[in-house]
């Protein structure tokens, strides 16, 4: 990552904070992770069009760079697909930034829309799967499975914020490469150094992150998927 992109990442982290997207307390994440001291809501980016545009630009730059390497880290893709719901918002912005067509996998019936895929696609197409935040990776895995049921191949997933709670290993075990733009740890360090968050809240986050890392390292390989 170059210095300019790092500064853009921190600018985006500050924009998320200013939008009220960062909360401290006692939260359950992803239906499984309990007692997290911090909650991030990237959906609030839609309230700041410039921040949403910056997020899409950063994601597109990262993917383009990963594809340009001698040993490319991202497979070619025909469409982008957003994980409902937050991922769809970012996937839409990414589609506008990159001019790559968008599809929307609807895993559950919504209103008058049946379970299925919105947007034009052909069997055998390759999709870049996009989400706004990842914890354990369950949502991405479920969406990738759903797309594969419709003969759409997913090799890579792109997320804006990575809580770094084992998702990389879980997705890799299922053949999916994960690319993340901002790690939660970087965001928390920035907020702390800028004096934006209470020192006690930061310490609680550090304790939680350390305990989570220790818990993951103690699990057998098969239990980390």
Could you characterize what this model shows?
There is one protein chain. With 225 residues, the protein is an alpha/beta fold. The chain has one domain (3-224): 3-Layer(aba) Sandwich (Rossmann fold), CATH 3.40.50.2020. The protein is 43% helix and 24% strand. The protein is built from seven helices and eight strands, in the order αββαβαβββαβαβαα. The strands form two sheets. The protein has a six-stranded mixed sheet with strand order 5-4-3-6-7-8, with helices on both faces. It has a two-stranded antiparallel sheet with strand order 1-2. The longest helix has 20 residues, at 49-68.
How would you summarize the topology of this molecule?
Elements: H1 3-18, E1 22-29, E2 33-40, H2 49-68, E3 79-82, H3 86-98, E4 102-106, E5 116-118, E6 126-134, H4 138-149, E7 153-162, H5 167-173, E8 177-183, H6 184-193, H7 199-217
Parallel strand pairs: 3-4, 3-6, 6-7, 7-8
Antiparallel strand pairs: 1-2, 4-5
Helix pairs in contact: 1-2, 2-3, 6-7
């Amino acid at each position: 990552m170059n210095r300019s992109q790092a500064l853009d990442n921190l600018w985006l982290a500050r924009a998320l904070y200013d939008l009220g997207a960062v909360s401290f307390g006692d939260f359950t994440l992803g239906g499984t992770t309990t007692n997290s001291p911090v909650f991030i809501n990237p959906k609030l980016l839609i309230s700041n069009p410039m921040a949403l545009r910056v997020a899409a630009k950063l994601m597109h730059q990262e993917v383009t760079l990963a594809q340009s390497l001698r040993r490319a880290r991202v497979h070619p893709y025909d469409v982008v697909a957003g994980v409902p719901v937050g991922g769809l918002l970012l996937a839409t912005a990414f589609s506008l930034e990159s001019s790559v067509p968008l599809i929307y996998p609807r895993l559950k019936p919504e209103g008058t829309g049946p379970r299925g895929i919105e947007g034009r696609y052909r069997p055998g197409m390759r999709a870049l799967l996009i989400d706004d935040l990842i914890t354990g990776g369950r949502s991405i895995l479920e969406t990738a499975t759903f797309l594969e049921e419709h003969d759409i191949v997913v090799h890579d997933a792109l997320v804006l914020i990575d809580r770094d709670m084992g998702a990389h290993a879980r997705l890799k075990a299922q053949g999916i490469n994960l690319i993340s733009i901002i790690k939660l740890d970087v965001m928390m360090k920035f907020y702390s150094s800028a004096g934006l968050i209470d020192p006690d809240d930061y310490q609680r986050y550090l304790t939680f992150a350390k305990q989570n890392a220790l818990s993951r390292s103690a699990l057998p390989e098969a239990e980390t998927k």
